[in-house]
C-alpha cells in the first residue's frame, strides 16, 4: 500500500522510532490496528508497530479534518458580499490572469522564476494562489508557505493585506515574522518573513523540513540575503525534491536567475500600469512654468541655480555639453580637465546635492493642480528627508495641515509610524510622502499619482581595498528610475518628475550592483560557518556574482581577529555563540563579554544603540546642541558610548516618573530610537539567556568604568586609533588608514589635549574623496587595550598586539607589559572556560 506521508508526520514517526523502537530493535509493520480504539490507547509503547499505524492514521484524519475546515472557511468568505468584492478586485490584477499557468508550471517543476511590474500582484497573489490550490487539493493542513521580503515593513504590510484579502485576522492562516516581532500561530500556513529570518531558521533546520514552498521576493534588488538564499536553495533542491521554490522579480531580467537554476521556467506577468508621463529636469522647469526673471533673483543668492539652466538647455549644442557633463559627473571624473564653458554649466546643475528649493516649488506646483492623487518623493536618506520636511513645514501651502498631509517613510522608522503612509488622505487634502528608495518596489502606497525622483539613493558600499564601509548617496540605476516612475501609474495615468537632465539618465548604469559585492562580508561568513556549509570561499564562489576574493579574505581575517574562527577557519566557541545572537558579530562579542564580566547593563545599551542608530538628534541647524547634550552626558569620561549609556539610563528613569517626553526634548534625544533600543535590549537578553549565559548578578560590576571600557574595547576591536598630542592639535591614526579625522560630534573631537592614548571607535566611514572619518569613540589606556583588545599571539614580545593586518606597537614599561600580558593569559583562559560552559561559575576562582 502506498501511503503519502507529510513531512510533519514523517518527523513525528522518526522521533517516535528513535525514542521507542530503536532501543528495542524490533519493528513490526502491522497496520491492521483499528483507529479510534480507545482501549488500546496505552498499548502504544508495548506494541510499537500498531502505535505507528494508529499515529499515521490519526494524523491523516486530523489533517483531513483541518483541511476541510480551511476549505469551508475560505469558501464562505469568498461567497460573502465582502469576500466577493475582494475576489473581484483580485481578479482585476494581472497576476490573476496567469493563475492557472503558474500553478501548472509549479506542479511540474521544482523551481520557477516569475517577473512582473510592481503592483501586478506577485507578492500578495502568488502565495495565495498556492495556498488556495493546496487547500483545494486537500493538502491545506500540511502546507507551509514561506515568502521572504527584503524589508521588515514590507513583510508586515503584505501579510496584513493578504490576511485581509482572506477575511482573516493577521496571525491566523496568514502571519509574519520579523526581528523583534511576529504574528503567527499553529494555524499559520502562509508566513511572510524577512530574508534574514529564513536564514536563521536554516541554522536549526538546514533541510527546511517544516517548509513546503519557499517564495523569495524582490530578487531583482540583489540584496545580500537574497543572493545568499539563492546559493543555499540551489544546494538544497536535490536533497528536498518535494520542496517548491519560486523567485519573484519586478524587472524583466529574469533570465539570469533562470540560468542560475539550470534553465528553470520563467513566467512573465504582462504589465498593467497606466501610462506615466515622464519629465526630466529640463521639462520640469518648463512644466512648472516659473518666471525665469524671478528665478534669476534667487540665483543672486546662490540658490536654485538649476532654474537658470533652462535657458541654456534650449540650445541644442548645450544639450550635448550636458551629456558630457553628466557623464563626467556620474563617473566622478576630474572636472578640471573639462573645457571651462562646460565647467560653468556644470555649476548650474549640481549633481552632488539635492536642490530643496526646486523640490519645494515643484511640490507647490503639484498642489495647485486639479488632478487628484498622492505625491511620492524619492529622497536619499533620513537626514535629507527630515531637513526637507523642516523646510516644507514653513511653506504657506505645503505646511498647512488642512491642505497637505506631509509624511515621511524610511527604514529606520517604527512600524506604527510607518503604517500612516498607507492611509488615504481626507478629501481635499494632498498626501505627500517623502521616502527613501524603500518605496521603490517593496511597499505600495495605493494612491500615488505623482512621483518626484531625485535620482539618488543612499547605498551602503564597501571598499575592500581599504576594508572600509562607506555610506554614500549614489546615482540609482536606470532600472530603478523605471521602477520609481512606475509607482505613479498604479491607479490612473500618472506623472513622474526626474530632477536631473535626460542626459544624466542616459549616463546611468543599467542595473545596480548586487549588495554582496558592496558590503563587508564577516556577518555572512559567520552564518556560512554556523550553517555548517562548505568552506567560506567555496560557498561564496557559487554565488550568482561571487564577491571579490579580497573582500572574503578580509571578512575571514576579521572573524579570526575577534576570535570567532580559529586559524583553520573552524568555528570557535565564541563564534558559535555569536552566530546565535541576532546582532553584528562584534557587538555580539561585547554582549557576551559584558555578561562574563558582569557589567551587562551598559553593554546591552551600547550594542542596542549601535544596532539602531544614534539617539542624539536635532534639526540640522541645531546639530551642535545635540552634540553639546552628548558631551554633558559623557562628563569627564571621554566616551560617546558611556554618554549613550547614561542618556538611556536617565531616560528610563524619566519614564518611570512620566517625564520621558520632556526629557527627550530637553536633551535632544529621539524617543523613538530609545524605544527601539529598549526593545532590542530585551531581545539581546533573551538571546543571551537562551545561549545559557547567566543573568543573575550580571550587573555586579556595571559601575566599574574601567571594566566597562574594557568590555567596549572587546566589542570594537580592531577599531582602534592612536591619539598623539601635537602642540596645537591631536593627530589620530589607524594602522590601515594613516591619519584619520575625528568627527566633531564625538566628545573626544572636542578635546584640546589627549587624555587617553587610544580611541576605540564604532564607526569608520569613507566619505567623499579619500578622507576617512571616525566617530563614536571611547578613550582607553594602554593596559586596557592590552588586556581586552584582540587576540594576543602567544610568545609574542611584550609591547605588541596582534591586529587585523599585523602588530600594533606599544610603548610602555616592559616589566609592566609583561605583567599585563601574564594577566591577559589567565583572563583568556577564564573566558574560554566560560564560553565552553556558560553556566559554569568561574568567577569564584581568581576573581
Ligand atoms: O508584488 P507586486 O508589486 O507585484 O504587487 P502586490 O504587492 O502584490 O500588490 C498588488 C496590488 O494589491 C496592488 O496593485 C495594490 O492595488 C494592492 N495592494 C493594496 O491595495 N495594499 C497593499 N498593502 C498591498 C497591495
Ligand atoms: Mg511585491
Automatic annotation (TrEMBL):
Its EC number is 3.6.4.13. It is an enzyme of class 3 (hydrolase). Keywords: ATP-binding, Helicase, Hydrolase, Nucleotide-binding, RNA-binding. Residues 29-44 have a biased composition (Acidic residues). Residues 21-51 are annotated as: Disordered. It catalyses: ATP + H2O = ADP + phosphate + H(+). Residues 358-532 form the Helicase C-terminal domain. GO terms for molecular function: ATP binding; hydrolase activity; RNA binding; RNA helicase activity. Residues 103-270 form the Helicase ATP-binding domain. Belongs to the DExH box helicase family. This is RNA helicase. The chain holds residues 106 to 952 of 1102 of the full protein.
